[in-house]
Amino acid sequence: MHVAAAGAVIALGTAVGVPAAYADDEPTQPWAEIQAPRQIDLPSAADGQEAVAPSVSYSFADGGAEFPLPKNAKLVIDASGLEGIATIKAKNEQCTASGAVVTCLDNGNLHGPWEPFTLTADADAKPGASGTISYEVTADGATGDKDSSKVVVGSPRLVVGKLPDRSGLKTGDTVALPLAVRNTGNLTTERVDIRLRSVPGVEFTTKPKNCRFAYEWDESASVYCAIDTPLEPGQSAKLSTPLTAKITKAALAPWIDYEAEAVPASSDEDPNGTRGTGSPIGLTTASGGDFETGGKSSLSLLTDNHADFRAVGGTIEPTADGTTGGLRFGLTNAGPAAAYRKDGKPLLYADITLPKGVTGLSNHIDEEPDQDTTGECLTYVSPTETKKFEPGHSRYLCPEASTELPGEGQMYGLGVKIAKDADKNATGTVKLVPGPAGFSTNDPDSGNDTAKITFKGASGGSSTGGESTGGSDHNGSGSGSGSHDGGASGSGGDSGSGGSGDGATSGGSHDSGSTGGSMALTGAGGITLMAGGAAAALALGGAAVVVTRRRRAAARV
């Protein structure tokens, strides 16, 4: 059985298709399945004559019938058809070589060794020379399997043209993507596969019928095209018709990753996505151009759009003895744009100043942090320095993830220590400040970047502006749903005393917010140096800080 990426193991006891030999009759024993590439390309002597270790393996399946396990499995790899073309050597300790044949014995795992052999092109083998290597698996108590791979000396090798970054784009603008490729290898291409992937804010609009188009749950888009136009060594070409992309209302600073790969004509096409209906695209000969050194690159698209991030305040709920408590706070993205950072750094930070007499007690990272945020708050040291979370401080910085969709947000919980003489009418703040340099949300409203932290039941504790609940729905309304994704129960956040998977703290909390402050995400005064952010959990008390995120549940198909 040929596979594009060998190494997958089909476990006994799983429901998989039966082999063709059993189309009419029920199987009576497990059967072997070989995973091997259709074609193996070997660097020629001119290319450096490097050894290649193909990903060839095998496994056994029983269709869920739970037959007795096979025994004494053996994989035989016969490279006698490669005489004068390539030399085989055993690579894995389970395998031994005898001339052009490598034999691998089972070690009890019932699947073949990873990369059992290497092939090296013979010094006199010319580019284009080819032969066949064959595989056979046998075992006691199982039906065997046979397969083979074509081995070719030399290969086409593609590099992609550099598409220039674009700026000043507006919603509804269309961007042409005249992708170009060059064959720097020593063989003519049989097929060129092109892939483009974008973050939210980009919609591919030209839809040739030899391309497929797909969308992920967050509206990230992708394109896959299979082009049969041959490209000779040294030849450059561009798409016969450029693909195009439209800028949507979710675009802020999106980017498109793109790549081109030369594959054998017999390779399986990617079946994911919906096939286009327009005229097919091909490659047309081109000259000149600015090319990358490899087959991958990226295009940045900057827009005049914005993402309005809003602080979500919170209420400290003391425990029965009044010496500790729990607090939940956070932020939401009211849109309209999706905020995605290409470098993976935090979009921004929630700068937390606790009320006088209150200090942080403990910090906990969710066992399964959502997407790419750890949830670990940092201890504020100075405007240019932070360190790992430490109890006993009144100011912390909590990182937002590097991505946030419109209508979604992030909630944190903090376990706190309360001094006996703490003024229950004192307030603290949740203030949103910029993340590391290199990205801006173009936040248009600084008035909702700060919200209050109050004590439960304190006079003046209610808020008249900003966010007043734990999280927000897709319209940024702030109503909670009590789900694992960070929504608060009812309209006031978690009020219980027990911890839960969604970030409840030991004292429970209610979220409240207010307007006030003037720290815009795009303004000056943010923390300019962020350190720490370790991934290990730090549990120092009964309460904890936990991060949860809202996420869109449905995927576009």
TrEMBL record:
Compositional bias segments (type: Low complexity): 507-517
Chain intervals for the UniProt region annotation (Disordered): 263-297, 432-517
Keywords linked to the UniProt accession: Membrane, Signal, Transmembrane, Transmembrane helix
Signal peptide positions (record): 1-23
Keyword Signal in record: yes
Record field: compositional bias (Gly residues): 458-469, 477-506
This protein's record includes keyword Plastid: no
Spans through the membrane: 524-547
Ranges of compositional bias, category Polar residues: 439-451
Protein's name in the database: Peptidase
Lineage, uppermost ranks: Bacteria, Bacillati, Actinomycetota, Actinomycetes, Kitasatosporales
